[in-house]
Amino acid sequence: MITGDIKNKIDQIWDTFFVAGITNPITVLEQMTYIFFMKMLDDKQLQEEANARDWDAEVQNPTFPAGERWVNPEATTEEEKTGIPYEHLRWHVFKNFGSDNMFKIVRQSVFEFIKHIGTGEESAYSRYMKSAIFLIPNARTLSKVVDGVDALDMNNRDTMGDVYEYILGKMAASGTNGQFRTPRHIIRMIVEMMEPTPQDYICDPAMGSAGFLVEAVKYIKEKNEEALFAQDEMEHIKTNMINGFDTDQTMLRIGAMNLLLHDISSPNLAWRDSLSEQNEDQNCYSLIMANPPFAGSLDKGNINKKILAYANTKKTELLFLAQFVRSLEVGGRCASIVPDGVLFGTSKAHIAIRKEIVEHQQLRAVISMPSGVFKPYAGVSTAVLIFTKTNSGGTDKVWFYDMRADGYSLDDKRSEISENDIPDIVARFHNLKAEESRTRKEQSFFVPIDEIRENDYDLSINKYKEVEREKVEYEPVKDILARLEKTESEYVKSYSELYKMLEEKA
User: Fold this and answer.
1) Which of 45, 315, 420, 453 has its CA 20 to 30 A from that of 81?
2) DSSP annotation of 108
């Protein structure tokens, strides 16, 4: 649980960047990520060294070999080729060098070191460091940031995971190509509905900062404590279970750090356009949870032909749904956030992808969300589609839920409120048998597949819900006319009396 004291420390670090002129929230987060990684590497080896002393042994494959020098593989001058002692690259050493000397060593050596490190548990993060740029402008700023980060207990993964999510929450700017941060409570709702297990192979093909993947890991650890003590299952959780792809190197670095701070050391993360010919994923994941881009430029010539077979379009929201179907294994589940247009669009591609999910797979649920859920990033109305891949149909009826409140005001401020449908949504989804008796006038209900077919596979809840209108009783017209006639006569009488009074005064 992140405390007010820790929040204050993070806010102070954040403000230090802003004072130094680094005002882009994503840039601030990225620079903080580099500093976190520098400290984590040293903390990890310090722990290994302590364990080795307890067992009178040596550290195996240390990140910072004692008595050796590190040489930058890109060194060009003779001075650079002599290298620097590994000891000087360690956090607990360089933080005591004095601000100017520390700034020089961190910028010229430590940062270059973490860009080139590529072995062991660090590879998931360091793989995407090659294009990274150190932007902290001066010794004073770095010194204040290092002091702030040094005060955080980075060995407590639960706390540091919360810290990083708090920092992610401070990013108030929308991304490019239709990206925007998915609210954590919406992610948690979807994860609780899908109930990931330690045996799953989980994927987010548009991972961003890895919110869905992190929340899945947290859920699994909460619900499967015995898995944390089973070596095989823990190895699977830390490596093969988590798969994420993105086309933004910055988001890959941020997502990798987010997972690393939640103790996922070697996830399968890759720079990849999930819709391209280069993506060969097919029948390989048991669970996909995603909020794919709703817009963006797309080269149709590079779209995977196997995806276009499901829906011949350039609309990313439809293509991602097609890719989800393609990459799930039979029996695999998917929960995807989609813009409302996917539910009722009338183009051939819109109808084709809905038909695919309803007729050839098993569409289980459509949760309609209010338009303010993604504010202040976007005001678009969205829904959650939940389906299972069967390749043989299985949809007999679809469960619809009309979410009206998510626990926050639906304006740009998103202030916390008492109204919240999310607990009800999760509870009802896990007890769908009880939903069969509910009517279309209620907040959730079933719609049979035949009715959906008749409506061109329209999945918008407004198509099927019944709005109960109260009968309004009006006065008989005779009574209204009589009242008007009486009012008019009183007006004429008063007017006549006033006119007479004015004449007498004149």
Assistant:
1) 45
2) I
Residue with the two structure tokens 């060593």: 105
Q: Which of 188, 183, 159, 187 is nearest to 171 (CA)?
A: 183
At residue 506 the predicted structure's pLDDT band, cuts being 50, 70 and 90, is low
**Of the ranges 12-26, 284-298, 440-454, which is most confident?**
440-454
What is the percent of the chain where pLDDT is above 90? 58
Do the Cβ atoms of 402 and 444 come closer than 8 Å?
Answer: yes
Average pLDDT of the residues in 279-286 = 94
Tokens of 187: 């992610």
| CB count in 10 Å sphere of residue 249 | 16
Separation between Cα atoms, residue 32 and residue 17, nearest integer Å: 9
- Which residues, including other chains, have CB under 8 Å from residue 63's CB and lie 6 or more apart? 41, 44, 45, 117, 120, 122
Residue 146 to residue 198: CA distance in whole angstroms:
37
CA-to-CA distance for 13 and 410, rounded, in angstroms?
A: 30
DSSP letters, 164-219, are HHHHHHT--S--STT--PPPHHHHHHHHHHH---TT--EEETT-TTTHHHHHHHHH
Residue indicated by tokens 């009006």: 474
- Encoded tokens for 282: 């097919």
Pair of tokens at residue 328: 């799930």
Using the structure block, give the residue that is written with the tokens 């198509």.
463
Q: What is the pLDDT of residues 70-101, one digit of tens each?
A: 999 888 888 888 999 999 999 999 999 999 99
Residue pair 90/77 in contact (Cβ under 8 Å)? The answer is no
Q: Which residue has the tokens 């008063």?
A: 494
Token pair listed for 272: 């990849």
Alpha-carbon gap, residue 279 to 385, rounded angstroms: 23
Q: What number of H helices and E strands is found in the chain?
A: 20, 13
Reported confidence tier of residue 180, pLDDT bands at 50, 70, 90: low
What does the mean pLDDT of the chain come to?
89
Please report which confidence band the pLDDT of residue 399 belongs to, taking 50, 70 and 90 as the band edges: very high
